[in-house]
Amino acid sequence: MAEITIKDIAKQCGVGISTVSRALNNHPDINPETRKRILEVIEETGFIPNNSARNLKRTDARCIAVLVKGITNPFFSNMIRIIEEETQRNKYALVLRHVEAQEDEIDVALELEKEKRLRGIVFLGGTFDHSEEKINKLKVPFIFSTVGIPSTECIDVSKIIFSNIAVDDRLESKRMTDYLLDLGHRKIALITERSELPIGRLRTEGYRKAYDERGLSVPEELICYVQEDIDHYSMENGYLTAKKLLASGREVTAIYAVSDSLAIGACRAVLEAGKRIPEDISVAGYDGIEMGEYYNPKLTTIKQPVEEIAKKTIRLLLDVIAERREHQQIVFPAQLIERESTGPC
């Protein structure tokens, strides 16, 4: 049986499609009897309104979706604001969707494509490691932003047309670890995530590489994984993970967390344990969120160029949509910001 459409409903009721749309949207400028008849026919036929059809005139097919994995991370706040400003300036509508940790962002995007008349998609956070078959189901231009370097074992980038914009998480994480090693620290605890998301994985790889290149043994007992049942990159998780580490009695002279939010939470645990920062334990983060500059002590971090990444992301997507530019793979440099939370061992 063919799927019932809004056109079929209009024909059966002897009205125009716009009248059916007004009835569905509960507009006041429609005769009550007409609305009643339309709604009865909809119930009888089992017609399910399609949001794309209902929003056709209003959105005029100028809608961009932003899917955020880890929306509680303050790192994304400025990015979302900049993307929103640019989409509005270019007269596009913005659909913001939070993707839960256990959700697959491509599945969420495919559902949104059915519901909205999307022209493009921005993925903030999440993973690059999707099958080629699944990723090719997306029919609109899309950009992975701040997701990390693609895993070429999972995706043949020569066959897939998309953009990726990020810093080199492995390289920048190695830089932070090298900085702490240069200060004389050898017992550097790492707070990271156990999952295979690129952000945690690549930053952990960078940590390991810094030790390996110096011929030093990686202190495996100091690699601490955040709790899986709460937001991976929250201050709460940093606090709980660092508190467990300090209670274990393992020797540690520095803590490096793979996000500033985790690092700030770790600072709280260090201070509660009666330790001084950085005299007893140095603490460093990653991302360069504004809060880190105003925390006491000010947080040493790897600062990502958030504004530049956000502007490049949305402008490139709009250019690709308008066929003014091809997709690109762009790596931005980050900056190591030395502040008060770290010192020599």
Can you describe this structure?
The chain has 345 residues and is α/β, with parallel strands linked by helices. It folds into three domains: 6-49, lambda repressor-like DNA-binding domains (434 Repressor (Amino-terminal Domain), Orthogonal Bundle), CATH 1.10.260; 60-167 and 306-333, 3-Layer(aba) Sandwich (Rossmann fold); 170-304, Rossmann fold, CATH 3.40.50. It is 42% helix and 16% strand. The chain has 14 helices and twelve strands. It has helices at residues 6-13, 17-24, 32-45, 51-54, 56-59, 75-89, 105-115, 132-135, 169-182, 198-213, 235-247, 260-272, 290-294, 306-321, and strands at residues 63-69, 93-99, 118-124, 142-145, 163-167, 188-192, 223-225, 254-257, 282-284, 301-303, 329-332, 335-337. The strands form three sheets. A six-stranded parallel β-sheet has the order 2-1-3-4-5-11, sandwiched between helices. Helix 10 links the parallel strand 6 (188-192) and strand 7 (223-225). The radius of gyration is 25 Å and the shape is elongated.
Topology diagram in text:
Elements: H1 6-13, H2 17-24, H3 32-45, H4 51-54, H5 56-59, E1 63-69, H6 75-89, E2 93-99, H7 105-115, E3 118-124, H8 132-135, E4 142-145, E5 163-167, H9 169-182, E6 188-192, H10 198-213, E7 223-225, H11 235-247, E8 254-257, H12 260-272, E9 282-284, H13 290-294, E10 301-303, H14 306-321, E11 329-332, E12 335-337
Parallel strand pairs: 1-2, 1-3, 3-4, 4-5, 5-11, 6-7, 6-8, 8-9
Antiparallel strand pairs: 10-12
Helix pairs in contact: 1-2, 1-3, 2-3, 6-14, 9-10, 11-12
- Give me the secondary-structure category: alpha/beta
Distance between termini?
A: 74 Å
Low-confidence stretches: 52-60
Radius of gyration: 25 Å
What's the β-strand tally?
12
Overall residue-averaged pLDDT value: 87
CATH class of the largest domain equals Alpha Beta
Spell the H/E element sequence.
Answer: HHHHHEHEHEHEEHEHEHEHEHEHEE
Determine the fraction of residues in helical runs and give it as a percent range. 40-55%
Q: Give the strand order, joined by hyphens, for the main sheet.
A: 2-1-3-4-5-11
Number of domains: 3
Strand percentage, roughly? 15-25%
Largest sheet data: 6 strands, parallel
- Write down the overall geometry: elongated
CATH superfamily descriptor of the largest domain: Response regulator
Fill in the CATH topology of the largest domain.
Answer: Rossmann fold
